Every structure is written in structure tokens, then in C-alpha cells.
Amino acid sequence: MNESTLKRPAPLPVQTNGPTVSPTEAMALAEQLRILLDGELAVESVKLGRNQTEEGAVVIRGRLLQPSAELFPRWLKMLNQRGYTPILRHDDQGGDDDVVLHIMAGVVPVSPSRAWINGLLFVLTVLSTLFVGSLYGANDVPVNSAWGILSPRFLLQGWPFMVTLLAILLAHEFGHYFAAKLHDVAVTLPYFIPLPVGFGTLGAFIRLKEPVPDRRKLFDIGVAGPLAGLVIAVPLLFIGLATSPVQIPPNVEGMMLEGNSILYYFAKILVHGQALPNPVTGMDVMMNRVTFAAWIGLLVTALNLLPVGQLDGGHTVFALFGNKARIINMVTLGIMALLGIAGLAPLQAAFPWLVNIGFTGWFFWLLLIGWIVGPFHPPALDDVTELDRTRRIIGYLVIIIFILVFTPVPLRPV
Asked: Which residues have C-beta within 8 Å of that of residue 126, sequence separation ≥ 6?
């Protein structure tokens, strides 16, 4: 064949007209894609999208000739450079390899980071956790006035609590951060949320600046945080328990008893040789600041691993099961509602055993999920590529970890 007869595709048209493209641009894009996808996708039909914000500028139906895990990254890079975003879905009307490729006009802009905000919030969280930690447990520094609790000597008592809790949270958030960086997904630094009461913080979060390309990358980013946090939390929990005394708790009005997860329950048995709180002797472990912070770290991990919405657990079950994860989402929300109902005082008065499983705080989490997180997980750009065997095994292990660290009743009055 003479070189002059080879069909060379013209460059893809560059999208410059905002969120939509003209029919002429769409037709040119469709024609060039038909040529460029030769050998990768057996194209069955190409049409212009009727609704560009939902279907896309161009909609291509066809059969994959190579694994989507290899093809989609190339398509994403090629189209992003020209102002388009590809979305790959299974074709419900075809077989396993039949797909629908939507070409959307526009690319999600990556906004610049303002690291000073992250730094300021972290410093404030250091101070708030130091303050809360200084108020917890035995105080060796005398306080002569209300302002005495703000003295440096008094505040520095809280450093074991602050260091333990922030070490766990930092490991968790930077687990997400470095996993995202590894997969070239733009992400912010962690945003810490200071709170000068309660636990000293409402936790931390990172924000993805662009859509996650596929379920494998989504899975890696989602599980990296809890696993990294647990690597720090579990050893610190055992260190804290080993240095915490076991005694009959003092009868103090307003005192709260921390709840048992399976992991925490057996950790106390391993360290102290008995189930605590002991139903016969009334003995319990008196958590020092390290133990309390590590327990909070486990609680935060469990809350993040709830398999709903875009929490870490939601990422995990969606990456594992795709749209079938909606069933798990609904079951989880139903269980949370039942645990909240079981925490209502009239029911617990009628059925005292409900104090072991009921906690009205789950109503707050249901509201938070409905208001901010959402019950269901949106699909990745490539919703065809599934997890490999190794990731599936890790995913099932993460679900087991969630069961081990979940605490039905985090706190209850003594």
C-alpha cells in the first residue's frame, strides 16, 4: 500500500465553546473518534447527544476489543487535553463487553490550593485537642481560678491526648492524600475541624478536586485512609491500655462510659486478662489520655467506614459491588435508624436490655448523611473496569475491619 493512501486522522477538534458544542463540532469529533478508536472499540453506532449535559456531545456504542483498564486512561488523557471528558458505562442492551462511551463537553477545572487555610485549621485543632486533653483525666497542676485552665502548665497536660489523636487523624488523611497523588488525582491537603469541647475535633477531611477516573483508583483512595489510621491507632491503643489502671469507677454525676467495639473489648481482655467492664466486680479500665484518644481514633475509623454515600466505607462497597451497593447503603441506613430508635428513653425504660444497643446519636448521623454525604455513591468516570482479585480481597477485609471497630453505643451514662 502506498504511503499516500494511508488514512491519517485529522487532529481532534479542541472544545472552546464552554459546556456545549455546536452540531458541526460534534460531528467532526464523532468522525475522528470513529477512526482513533479503531482496534480498541468495535463501534456499532455514533450519534450526537440530544442533551449534552446528560448524554454528552457524542454518544458511541460499541464492543471493547481491549481491557477497559488499559483503554480508558488513554481516552481520558487524549480527550481532556482537548477539552472533553469521557464517561464509560455498560450497555444495558448488550453483552458483557458492550459499552456506551459518552463524550462530555468541558473538563472539571482544578482550582488552586490555599494551603494557609489547611495550616491555620491544623494549628487551631492542635490547640483545641490540647485543651480538651488537659481537661480529661487526672490533673497534676493546681488551678486557682477559672482562667487557670488556660495556663501553659495546665494545657501541656493534654499533650499525650493531642499527639495520639492527631497522629491517627494525620495518618488517616495522608493515607487518602498520598493514594490520590499516586494515581495522579488532584486533591487538597487535609482540612482539620477544631472543636474546643467534646473530643477536641470533629475530625478532618480532604477534598478531591476532580472526578475519580475508575473504581480501582476510587477503591485505593478510599481504603488507604482507614488502613493507615489503624496502623497507628491499634498499637497506641494497646500502649494506652497497658498504662491505664483497672478499678471500680468513681460515682461522678454526668460521667460517661465508653462503648465497646469487638476490637476494643478483646484488646482489654488481652491486656488486663478480663472482660471490662466486669459485670461481677464492677471493675473497669480507667482510660488515660492515650487510651481515650486511641479509642476516639477507632470510633472515627468506624464512622468513616459506614458503607454509605461518599464515606470511606461507601467508596469501598461501591468499588466492590457497583450499583448493587445501593442495597448495602439502604440496609446500613435502616440499621442506624433502628439503633437510634432503640436509644429512645421510653423504649429503654420498657426494655432495659436496649441500653446495650440503642444510641440516639445515630439520628444525628442520619441527618448528616442525608444533608452532606448523601446515601448513595456516584459512579466513577469509568464504571466498567472492576476491581482485580487482590483489591477484592482487601475490600472484604476492610468490611471485616468495619465490623470489628463499629461501636453501636459509643457513649452512655454510667
From this structure: 162, 166
CB 226 within 8 A of CB 301: yes
| φ and ψ at residue 189, rounded to 5 degrees | -70, 165
Between CA 41 and CA 47, with CA 45 as vertex, the angle to 5 degrees is: 120
Cα–Cα–Cα angle for 11, 6, 99, rounded to 5 degrees: 60
d(CA 96, CA 385): 11
Task: Tell me how far apart the alpha carbons of residues 17 and 376 are, in angstroms, rounded to a whole number.
Answer: 33
d(C-alpha 255, C-alpha 228), whole Å = 32
Asked, as a colleague might, if the bond just before 277 is cis with ω within 30 of 0, I would say: yes
Rounded CA-CA distance 169/229 in Å is: 7
pLDDT digits (tens, 9 = 90+) for 395-404: 999 999 999 9
The CA-CA-CA angle for residues 77, 79, 85, to 5°, reads 100
Give dist(CA 256, CA 218) in Å, integer.
Answer: 38
**What is the spatial distance between Cα 314 and Cα 320, in angstroms, rounded to a whole number?**
10
In b/e form, how buried is each residue of 164-193, taking b as 16+ CB within 10 angstroms?
Answer: bbbbbbbbbbbbbbebbeebebebbbbbbe
Any idea what DSSP says for residue 65?
A: S
pLDDT on residue 114: 92
Asked if 8 and 33 count as a contact pair (C-beta separation under 8 A), the reply is no
d(CA 103, CA 43): 14
Q: Is the dihedral of CA 302, 304, 305, 306 positive or negative?
A: positive
Q: What is the pLDDT of residue 32?
A: 83
CB atoms within 10 A of CB 93: 8
Give me the mean pLDDT over the 58-75 stretch.
92
pLDDT band at 163 (very low <50, low <70, confident <90, very high): very high
Give the chain's length: 414
Instruction: Return the H-helix or E-strand segment holding 80.
Output: helix 68-80
SS3 state of residue 240 = helix
Name the residue with cell 466513577.
380
Give the 3-state secondary structure of residue 208: strand
pLDDT in tens, 68-97: 999 999 999 999 988 889 999 999 887 778
pLDDT bracket for residue 8 (50, 70, 90): very low
Cell readout for 152 is 501553659
Cβ-based neighbours of 195, under 8 Å, separated by 6 or more:
128, 201, 202
Q: What's residue 38's pLDDT?
A: 85
